[in-house]
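Tokens for chain A. Residues wanted.
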């Protein structure tokens, strides 16, 4: 990929910039600006280069219809405050904008085209629509890694029609993921959670061939606990997973990758009840596993201490209740401690993991925290992402 950060002559160039500004909105107000904050360096870089920026982005899933509640207007207002530059939301029908000269009539440094998913051609990956978009600028920049697993017109097709580059945030994302999938510093450990093994089986299988340790936590660890002959009471579990677990264990032995799951747990009668430490053979039929126990925490911390690279995707327990957040917090604190000593390269991703780190104000204490969701997981599976393929 060619990175826009290496381009010098951008003065007065019209840059079609694909961003992911799909932030949560409630009654027209942004409730989480993380995705906006992450792309500010790219916008600052381009404005300093005196480029004319034309932003393409989406909010929600309007499916080709104009839905007022999914307008980019609140995002436009937020960017104005943060960048302290003039920004204009262009509400004209994109299909009626005939060429890039249309933008010469605006004095604003940054222009935002209204929700790209108001047009059904976007998700249909329409060739004609992509070519029309390409005619609106001089260069294209993709700084929306989190959309790059979608073969949509503004992500996959535009690069076929104009000089195309990666943005600063996309560069950071790919660099971080490269360090945990190909250019690895060993020993390397993955801490992976979530409620369903089936949704992450391909990630686990792909990582087993590359990682030294894979630590299973969260709801999916319950399946492992039960598979090895223990009762898990009324804990969350996924049905019909024995063959998947057998496959994981068999592959891990072949690839010499250690699979670690809880040795002791924290249980309760319900999500808001009192917590109690239990050995695996002590769990009662009316109890549910909601966190990892102290022996398991100590074991994980020892593994983190010996690791040079860490990938974390999924909390260790039901962290929304402080009574069951101890395991996740201890893991986070140990990674942060080692990070500050430059003993480890750490990458975290996944909605719940990011929420946990945000609650601890710990996002900046990791080398990289991905908000990319589906694209992050598909990259870890070893899949080719259409948006990255297009730039290559």
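Reply:
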């Amino acid at each position: 990929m060619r990175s826009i950060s290496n381009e010098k002559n951008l003065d007065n160039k019209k840059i079609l910039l694909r961003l992911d500004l799909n932030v949560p909105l409630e009654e027209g107000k942004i409730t989480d600006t993380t995705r906006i904050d992450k792309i500010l360096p790219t916008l600052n870089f381009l404005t300093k280069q005196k480029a004319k920026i034309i932003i393409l982005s989406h909010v929600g899933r309007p499916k080709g219809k104009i839905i007022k509640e999914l307008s980019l207007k609140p995002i436009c207002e937020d960017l104005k405050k943060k960048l302290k530059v003039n920004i204009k939301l262009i509400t004209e029908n994109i299909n009626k904008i005939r060429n890039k000269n249309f933008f010469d009539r605006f004095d604003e440094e940054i222009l935002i085209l209204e929700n790209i998913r108001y047009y059904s051609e976007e998700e249909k990956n329409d060739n004609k629509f992509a070519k029309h978009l390409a005619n609106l600028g001089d260069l294209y920049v993709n700084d929306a890694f989190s959309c790059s697993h979608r073969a949509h017109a503004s992500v996959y097709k535009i690069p076929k029609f104009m000089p195309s580059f990666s943005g600063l945030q996309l560069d950071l994302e790919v660099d971080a993921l490269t360090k945990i999938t190909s250019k690895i510093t060993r020993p390397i450990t993955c801490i992976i959670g979530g409620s369903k093994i089936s949704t992450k089986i391909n990630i686990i299988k792909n990582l087993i061939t590359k990682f030294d340790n894979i630590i299973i936590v969260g709801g999916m660890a319950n399946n492992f606990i039960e598979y090895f002959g223990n009762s898990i009471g009324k804990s969350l579990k996924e049905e019909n997973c024995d063959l998947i677990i057998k496959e994981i264990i068999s592959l891990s032995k072949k690839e010499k990758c250690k699979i670690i799951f809880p040795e002791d747990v924290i249980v309760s009668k319900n999500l808001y009840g009192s917590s109690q430490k239990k050995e695996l053979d002590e769990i009662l039929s009316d109890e549910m596993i909601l966190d990892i126990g102290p022996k398991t925490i100590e074991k994980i911390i020892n593994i983190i201490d010996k690791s040079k690279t860490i990938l974390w995707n999924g909390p260790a327990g039901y962290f929304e209740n402080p009574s069951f957040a101890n395991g996740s917090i201890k893991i986070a604190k140990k990674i942060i401690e080692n990070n500050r000593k430059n003993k480890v390269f750490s990458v975290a991703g996944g909605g719940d993991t990011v929420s946990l780190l945000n609650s601890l104000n710990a996002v900046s204490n990791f080398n990289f925290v991905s908000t990319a969701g589906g694209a992050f997981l598909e990259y870890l599976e070893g899949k080719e992402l259409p948006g990255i393929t297009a730039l290559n």
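The chain has two domains: 4-168, 184-381. The radius of gyration is 23 Å.
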